[in-house]
Automatic annotation (TrEMBL):
PROSITE patterns hit by this protein: ABC_TRANSPORTER_1, ABC_TRANSPORTER_2
Name of the featured protein: ABC transporter ATP-binding protein
ABC transporter domain residues: 6-247, 267-499
Keyword Zinc-finger included in the entry's annotation: no
A Pfam family the protein falls into: ABC_tran
SMART domains attached to this UniProt entry: AAA
Keyword field: ATP-binding, Nucleotide-binding, Transport
Top-level taxon of the source organism: Bacteria
InterPro entries, A to Z: AAA+_ATPase, ABC_transp_ATP-bind, ABC_transporter-like_ATP-bd, ABC_transporter-like_CS, P-loop_NTPase
């Protein structure tokens, strides 16, 4: 019999702080198979993938065995250099954090070419352009010369998939590879990922994607695999309570569309545009756009990756000036909002937290703009904020590197909530969260609008989820903002209710 492409037996992972990220994890992925690893945020999915790839720190204790098909050795017994030489061509890896996977001083093209260069192969520019075009990157030949900050998170994630599969690996390990992509592009990218790999093990919080692209599903809960089976069996006849909870949370009821409230305008834009240099020409990211956001109102913007949503959000938040048009906050045109009145929730939560600071310092930093607080008081307030977003068990003294991306996103939300701002701007705030946690976070944002009158401007690729809390949904396509029709009426319902 042909051995599995990758086989994991009794994997146990204990972090330096004593947290057990994986407990007795056992499974195999056969060549030609696609396996999805699902579960709530922080349940051990990313830990499992990083254990296979050898990306956990030296102080982390790992026991068990990990074997790759054509290598008769437990890779956990190898020294780091030996392991890297053995796995470099056999294992592909697509990170959950596309920005963190890139050197900000190098171009995107350098990153995509690097796997070939390491193997002594000369990249073909036309071939690389074709690969990026195939995963939906417009003007790929020009964009290869740009730096990561010039790309949207969704576009960068697709380039990471191309880079991670350059060598046609035996197994590609993909950690939330489509979290920042719209539904159609997510399907396309996972199809491409499977076509470019001999086997795939991917982490996802999207059960509909798992149903469409996985042969088998593994459900994790509190570091253990609690259910395993074919995609059809797990989703239609779940045996474990955790699986049932995840399925129940994936069914979303849309919020009724309502007219803007008769409350003060917190932020508005009139005819704002934004252009970027692209090679020898310019790329218009946002065409003339008009927008108003009222106190207590949630305005959502949906649209394809790279359509200009994030750029518009950065202008509304005051982080980036428009090339033309006018922005006002609280009825006053100015160079930017007053400090603390607008709080962001980033698409890239790990990068938004200072890696040198304990969590309490990052969470309570917005309060220090107007108040003097002692360390003990800041730690107490941080604990309360962490509890409010459902992660009260986390130690406020912990560092961001000890968190999963989903946990880091909730810390970022806690930091935004603690300032009680007039406006929250959130770029894909649930992209890294499982369906239950994502719904809880959205409910928290809705409650903040209803009870405290905090206005919110939220960008997302998930029409169905955003539609459960938004008062208005706007669509953005190729830089054009269209408020003529509410996209909830055309949401892809089967994708949100896996069967």
């Amino acid at each position: 019999m042909t051995p599995p492409a990758v086989q994991v037996e009794d994997l146990c992972v204990t972090y330096p702080n004593g947290h057990r990220g994986a407990i007795g994890v056992t499974f195999a992925v056969d060549e030609g198979e696609s396996v999805a690893l699902v579960g709530e945020s922080g349940c051990g999915k990313t830990t499992t993938l990083r254990s296979i790839q050898g990306l956990l720190g030296a102080r982390t204790r790992i026991t068990g065995t990990i074997r790759i098909a054509d290598v008769d050795v437990d890779v956990l017994t190898l020294r780091p250099r030996e392991r890297h030489l053995l796995t470099a061509r056999r294992l592909g890896y697509v990170s959950q954090d596309p920005y963190g996977a890139y050197d900000p001083l190098r171009t995107v093209g350098h990153h995509v070419r690097e796997p070939l260069l390491i193997q002594g192969r000369r990249p073909d520019a036309a071939d690389l352009t074709a690969q990026l075009t195939a995963v939906g990157i417009p003007e790929a030949a020009t964009r290869l010369g740009q730096h990561p900050h010039q790309w949207s998170g969704g576009m960068l994630q697709r380039a990471t998939i191309v880079a991670g599969t350059q060598l046609s690996p035996l197994v590609t390990l993909a950690d939330e590879p489509t979290s920042a992509l719209d539904a159609d592009l997510a399907d396309n990218v996972l199809s491409t990922l499977r076509a470019r790999s001999r086997a795939v093990l991917f982490v996802t919080h999207d059960l509909a994607l798992a149903a469409a692209h996985a042969d088998r599903i593994l459900v994790m809960h509190e570091g253990r695999i609690v259910e395993e089976g074919t995609a059809a069996t797990v989703l239609r006849q779940p045996r474990h309570d955790q699986t049932r909870l995840l399925l129940a949370a994936s069914i979303r009821a849309p919020r009724l569309v309502r007219t803007p409230p008769r409350t003060p305008t917190v932020a508005s834009a009139s005819g704002v545009t934004k252009r970027y240099r692209s090679g020898t020409g310019t790329l218009t990211a946002v065409q003339p756009a008009d927008l108003s956001i009222h106190a207590g109102e949630i305005v959502g913007v949906v649209g394809p990756s790279g359509s200009g949503k994030s750029t518009l959000l950065r202008m509304v938040s005051g982080m980036e000036p428009p090339d033309s048009g006018t922005l006002t906050w609280n009825g006053q045109a100015s160079a930017g909002p007053t400090p603390g009145s607008v709080m962001p929730i980033s698409q890239d939560p790990l990068s938004s937290l200072d890696p040198r600071w304990p969590l309490w310092r990052s969470i309570t930093e917005p309060l220090t703009v107007t108040r003097r607080l002692g360390k003990a008081e800041r730690i107490r307030l941080a604990r309360e904020a962490l509890t409010q977003v459902g992660i009260g068990h986390l130690d406020p003294l912990a560092r961001p590197r000890q968190l999963s991306v989903g946990q880091a996103q909730r810390v970022a939300i806690a930091r935004a909530l603690i300032a009680r701002p007039a406006l929250i701007v959130a770029d894909e705030p649930t992209a890294s969260l499982d369906v239950r946690t994502a719904q809880a976070m959205m409910a928290l944002l809705r409650d903040l609008a209803d009870r405290h009158g905090v206005a919110q401007f939220i960008v997302s690729h998930d029409v169905a989820l955003l539609g459960t809390i938004a008062d208005r949904l706007l669509t953005m396509t190729d830089g054009h903002l269209d408020a003529a029709a509410d996209p909830r009426a055309h949401a892809d319902a089967p994708r949100q209710e896996p069967s």
